# Entry
Amino acid sequence: MNFSENQSIYIQITDYVKDQILLSNWLKEEKIPSVRDLASELQVNPNTVMRAYDILQQEGVIYNKRGIGNHVTSDAPAKILEARKEKFLQSELPAFFKNMLLLGLGIGELEVLYTHFLNEHPKK
Amino acid sequence: MNFSENQSIYIQITDYVKDQILLSNWLKEEKIPSVRDLASELQVNPNTVMRAYDILQQEGVIYNKRGIGNHVTSDAPAKILEARKEKFLQSELPAFFKNMLLLGLGIGELEVLYTHFLNEHPKK
Amino acid sequence: MNFSENQSIYIQITDYVKDQILLSNWLKEEKIPSVRDLASELQVNPNTVMRAYDILQQEGVIYNKRGIGNHVTSDAPAKILEARKEKFLQSELPAFFKNMLLLGLGIGELEVLYTHFLNEHPKK
Amino acid sequence: MNFSENQSIYIQITDYVKDQILLSNWLKEEKIPSVRDLASELQVNPNTVMRAYDILQQEGVIYNKRGIGNHVTSDAPAKILEARKEKFLQSELPAFFKNMLLLGLGIGELEVLYTHFLNEHPKK
DNA sequence: GTGGTCTAGACCACC
DNA sequence: GTGGTCTAGACCACA
# Structure
């Protein structure tokens, strides 16, 4: 995995885990990779993975069974999706609209660009 | 002004200055607020404003008349617009469309949200 | 049984066993559940129960008859009660009183709360 | 400061900070010691103090002014007191009453012990 | 084997 | 000066 320079690694790891869950690669109530395993897979220090797991636990996305490992909570996918939606509507959308105004882009032009985008990124 | 937690303050200040120029609040060849004045207005350390002005100078958005102050360059609005457009098309737009897909949002719903936004942010 | 997050499970198991003895659910010289049985009943790893039994043996609360199983010692209730009393008076009581002061709780209010508690936890 | 063996150091540091606030040694909106300063004062690694400060930030007890340092929030004392009260009523009180029952201690005897305690710990 | 804690030390962005 | 991130490595409790 290649990490972006703009964001701290542990945040990118939380996003990575959430993606795996949303993509159903890691299922509800199933064990996820141990701290050490994921660390060696992603080529980072175990402490960094630990920090990501800490955050995910606080967010209720994973939980720990002592001595056994971390597991996906049953409502993890819903929570993740909800949080992303919230963030999109609250912060990304207004910023996007503001940019449209500044750049003089109307909803009509946007639609053209969107159609373009869909053609280049067809559903699998 | 309220600063976001996610970005460094000096970057937000450069954006603020650029916004003022794009909105024609600060005109070409006109003097902009001194480092000290803007610092006290925005409630930040003068060094922070200084750093923002440094960057704006490097980008050719403002220039310094010794002993007088900083001024907007004559091609500032064009430059800023160009850069914003570039960034918008290259990185923001694809990410935005990707999120629309993820959240199952169509161009129709987007139009409704946009109309809403326009009503809440009428042009002066 | 629901285990607290704040304490290790094997400690909670020793407390559980001691409670059973104090409540006369498990009598002197009687056989107590085997490691496996208690483990499956409490939904924990047998090693964890084993560790708890080890400690209880060292404390002289239970003893092992080879090939037969663990039994409550004849002086177990007295020992447990003595230890609890000691701990209660030495550490819990002062901390409790200190908290009462901090929260401005008097002996009168405490009595009300205690009556409440008794109503919700009637003796069998 | 002497740390207990039973609890992780960073938790004890959060309690230490809360105590300072409750005792009005550190006032609302005032700067608290920097990570490095407190670390050297308490003879621990800066990372350990950092972890404590992280938690306190999440709890809304302190907040960070970038490049300047951490400060006590204005509602910190109320929050801390509220949390301690909650914990006392929810977990300490029931455990305490349960012990009273097991040890055959009535409210009358408790009152005697409390009077005793008050005599030994007079208000300053 | 699992996670959790702590240290030492480096480097960085920011003010 | 401030906090924040990351690494390397040790040690421990727990299952």
Summary: The first strand of chain A starts at residue 62 and ends at 65. The first helix of chain A runs from residue 9 to 22. Residues 34-36, 46, 50, 53, 64-70 of chain A lie near DNA strand E (CB under 10 Å from a C1').
